[in-house]
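Hi L., both proteins are below.
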Amino acid sequence: MKAAFRLLLLLILVLISEVNGQRRKPGRKPARPTSERKPARPTPEWKPARLTPEPVEPTELPPPLPPGPPSVFPDCPRECFCPPDFPSALYCDSRNLRKVPLIPPRIHYLYLQNNFIDSLPEESFKNATELRWVNLDNNRIKKLDRRVMEQLDSLVFLYLEKNQLKEVPSFLPANLEQLRLSRNQISKIPSGVFNKLEHLVLLDLHHNKLSDGVFNKNTFRGLKNLMQLNLAHNILRKLPPGLPSAVHQLFLDRNNIEDIPDDYFKEFPNLAFLRLNYNQISDKGLPKNSFNLSNLLVLQLAHNKLTTMPFINPKLEHLYLNDNSIEKINGTQICPTSLVTFQDFSSDLENSPRLRYLRLDGNQLKPPIPLDLMMCFRLLQSVVF
């Protein structure tokens, strides 16, 4: 009995110890003392992502335009346009080009204006010997290649306005008829540059930096047939010497010209249109018969310093004297013919002065229009007073 009781007690103790072992779980590690704890990692401060600043001008020049569709002409440069109904023309204008493409030999009319071209490579023009018309306005050309110019024997019209030329180009084709060089930086005309240009009829040099020292009596030698010369908007103080005697139209406005030498315009028997607006011409610097020219039809003297109306030829038809300092007009003194009486006002109109348009606004005149002025210029159709 005792033995059985002991065995039962031993079995109970074993069971109790098994249960206790299953209930026991591993405990957490004891916390470290405050002095031994690691410092907490700081939370990084938020910052916006750094962006690369945009340039003021992303590129110096805009990209060239993409090539157009294939042309019916196999030799047509892809960056240009060759109209099917105008096979002798090549349009490469306003396409942001940096270089001149290879010009096909069939081209007579070449349009390259409004690009960024700075030179004319010989390679581009090696086959273009039949060119007659070249427009290079509004580019960045500083000089012309002599080898290119010398092979363009058929060139008649050359447009180089609004470029960066500092002097009139040399070695220009001898058959040239129109040369347009306005809005450059030209301050020099090389000696003999026009000697072989006897076919030139139009020379445009307005809006450059030409001064009195640039011109001498031989500057325009060779221009035997020049009809239009534009020297407006330069820095002239005197009328240049040696102008071509054949000139019909002469533009000298927007300079600083103060006086006109005696008989200066007598050297131009064909002069029909003369423009001298925006200068410094006064009565003192104007000889009486300066504009007494038999072929002169239009005379512009606006925005000067005149105080009296100049003497004119009976054949003059348009006279601009606006914005001067004219205070009084004596029709008797300025009339190029004898005044008629009121009774004869409608007679003999064939021999009366031919003036039809007269502009006098912007002066110090007061109405009414002087009667003797109207009695003299009986064909006047419009007077701006």
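That was the first. Here is the second:
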Amino acid sequence: MPPMAVDKQRLLPLFVLALVTACLVSGGEEPARFQIPRDGSVVELDEGNFEAAVAAVDFLFVDFHAPWCGHCKRLSPQLDEAAPVLSGLSTPIVVAKVNAEKYKKLRSKYGVDGFPTLMLFDHGVPTEYTGSRKAGQLVESLRKLVAPDVSVLKSDAAIKSFVQEAGVGFPLFIGFGVDESSIAEYGARYKKKAWFSTAKDFSEDLMAVYDFDKIPALVSLNPKYNEQSVFYGPFEGTFLEDFIRQSLLPMTVPINAETVKMLKDDDRKVVLAVLQDDSDETSMRLIKILRSAANANHDLVFGYVGVNQWEEFTEPFHDSKSSQLPKLVVWDKDEKYEVVEGLEKLEEGDHGSQISRFLEAYRAGRTIKKTFGRRFPTLLGVNALYILLLLVAVLVVLMFFSGQGEEDRQPTRAHQE
């Protein structure tokens, strides 16, 4: 065999080894794994590491933002505050940001059409988040979203831990001796609004704490308003869901921006007490009486609002020059309300009897129906206000250019003449 042939045969394995090594070093190595930050800080993602992050993290909360967006700039410190808390939960949530103005492929893939757009990736599946953006409420809302639809509690200690960890942001439902299948549907349906659980093993001491004496019993807790109620059934038909839906609101609803949004999801009319100041002693006594009325009239929502607390809201119901307070109306949560002639003003004395007579007259149809002269600006959605402003701006621009066109055409006609 010629010497040159021998050299080629010896060099061939070395050449192949070098080629394989080069491929491994340059293009054949696996992509770097996404590293979850230990300090719980907000992670900056791009088109190079986004999918790795989605694959590596069970729950990833992503802020798709743009550098010029004012809302995004205001949201940023809220995310910085919430991120360490969320990463330290028993079910950790990693907070990340994507410059969607720069990384247009990610923007297109996830349908981002406005800034900021917030999405929670649950094991890779994205869901848009539209809840509160304040750090504290953001943590409460996300913690609720990553929890099981229905938690199964097997001891007194587990029940106490569940209640403590749930906090005060949402109502809680604990089914003592209730089969999980009975409330699983509602746990999924109302996941964004309440905590659900079933308790399998519990002591008589705990029965005394939650004030029920037989099972099955579904206990509703609303820690924000220090309210508690018990449902003994039946657990079929609409009875159970009616109890759950009614328990999402407090017995007497303080009307504010947050509760107005909650009322939109409830199909009941509102018996509304308009007060001068909902925090004074007289008003507090009246609110307690309203709570008793609410307990006996579950087909209505009972609410109250103070002129001093939210004057703009009360204006359509209350003429400051001729109307006296406190007064009662029945509001449809839109542009219409009803008054009972002669009974809308609550006089000093027995408020309980006056409220009973008001409700009796309302149910008998002895009411005067009224319509607001204008719509609540607070109830008109923010998006609708933006659209209205946009339409006005477009109209002004059209009028401007129309005028310019007329001016441009005038000299031409004069010249032709």
